[in-house]
Amino acid sequence: KLKEVIRANDDLYFVFEYLDQNVYQLIKDRTTDLPESQVKSIIYQTLEGLAYMHKHGFFHRDLKPENLLATGDIVKIADFGLAREIRSRPPFTDYVSTRWYRAPEILLRSTSYNSPIDIFAMGAIMAELYMLRPLFPGQNETDQIYKTCAVLGSPDKTDWPEGFKLAAQIGFSFPKFVSTSLSTIIPNASAEAIDLMEKMMQYDPQKRPTASQCLEHDYFKDFVAPVQTSIYGKSNKGFFNKANDTTSNMRKSSGMSKRLESRKSKLESRGVNKNSFYKSKQK
């Protein structure tokens, strides 16, 4: 949630609510699997956010574990620097989304992609939460396609003709791979989880379910989302909790908050606040 907007000279400062950590930090040093209930909670809340975002006409374009922030049991999507309007007219840039979570159509330089790229990224993130490592750790764009095909199998021309057109335009030929069952790669995932991931990571973006459809999947049957509480009130004792002194040390080590407060005071003394900023933008 955006808490404040501060304008100082030619600089804009956006002050957001503070969340303890991101999902990458949650899994990077783990040596034991995340319980499926935790994976389910993370994915459900993120899909809720995506469903809301897509409904209101935007898609994120850079979903990855680092951009999923959390506090208590609550997960929120961050970093909308690459977000676009769904109704925006192509062409879009093909260099979006962090490589390991990049949908095949983007890897093939499509300039007319849309919100299904967020769904593919969610499938890759979900797999990573179970595996505790990336599903498609490509070293470059070409290797990324190879890594994707090695898991999902090579696409069939009849199933995704648009993909073969894109490949031909850049002189690329798909490698010949037979798909590897996700249940073999991710044995700790339930059958429902495997089915959802397979649907989200289909080659043809038109065949991927929407975020709202994902929320109706059997994987989430009987799931109850955590109740959100204010981060300024009593925090949840959830699976994201970390030692409070880590937060304290982070804040002490950064002088940004003090600099912002100083600038904010100067600005307010000159009658500049977020309301006047918005008014000036509307003129």
Automatic annotation (TrEMBL):
Q: What InterPro entries has UniProt attached to this entry?
A: Kinase-like_dom_sf, MAPK, Prot_kinase_dom
Q: Where is the composition biased (Basic and acidic residues)?
A: 258-271
**Where is this chain compositionally biased, Polar residues type?**
243-256, 272-283
Question: Which Gene3D superfamilies does the entry link to?
Answer: Phosphorylase Kinase, domain 1, Transferase(Phosphotransferase) domain 1
Q: Which domain of life is it from?
A: Eukaryota
Keywords tagged on the record: ATP-binding, Kinase, Nucleotide-binding, Phosphoprotein, Serine/threonine-protein kinase, Transferase
Molecular-function annotations in GO: ATP binding; protein serine/threonine kinase activity
Note the coiled coil stretches, chain numbering.
none
Ranges where the record places region Disordered: 243-283
Protein kinase domain location: 1-220
Family per similarity comment: Belongs to the protein kinase superfamily. CMGC Ser/Thr protein kinase family. CDC2/CDKX subfamily.
- This chain belongs to the protein called Protein kinase domain-containing protein
Species: Euplotes harpa
Supply the source organism's classification.
Answer: Eukaryota, Sar, Alveolata, Ciliophora, Intramacronucleata
